[in-house]
């Protein structure tokens, strides 16, 4: 993997564009949980990214991009993704759906 310090401006811009277009395709933040595309990888919680860092990122380009996002967020530079968020309408948040529980008063009396 390359170091971010070894990248020129145009390559960095292309990398950010690729990160901006990449969504989590599976798991807790995948397409079924955050329809229709899944959570953008730049909005994944840092704890989730660290979980992958400990156990291994997915193979391929998705894993490489997630590792880069993890490093950026890990050093406190999440604000790097703010222009992308602004252009796309804000931060994508995840609120798991809760099961609705209907409680009726006992009708024994």
From TrEMBL:
Domain of life according to the entry: Bacteria
Protein name: DUF3820 family protein
């Amino acid at each position: 993997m390359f170091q971010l310090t070894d990248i020129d401006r145009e390559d960095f811009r292309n990398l950010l564009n690729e990160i901006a277009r990449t969504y989590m395709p599976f798991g807790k933040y995948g397409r079924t949980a955050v329809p229709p595309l899944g959570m953008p990888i730049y909005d994944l919680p840092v704890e989730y990214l660290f979980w992958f860092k400990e156990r291994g990122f997915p193979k391929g380009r998705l894993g490489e991009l997630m590792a880069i996002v993890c490093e950026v967020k890990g050093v406190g530079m999440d604000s790097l993704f703010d222009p992308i968020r602004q252009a796309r309408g804000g931060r994508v948040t995840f609120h798991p759906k809760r099961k609705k529980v209907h409680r009726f008063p006992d009708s024994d009396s």
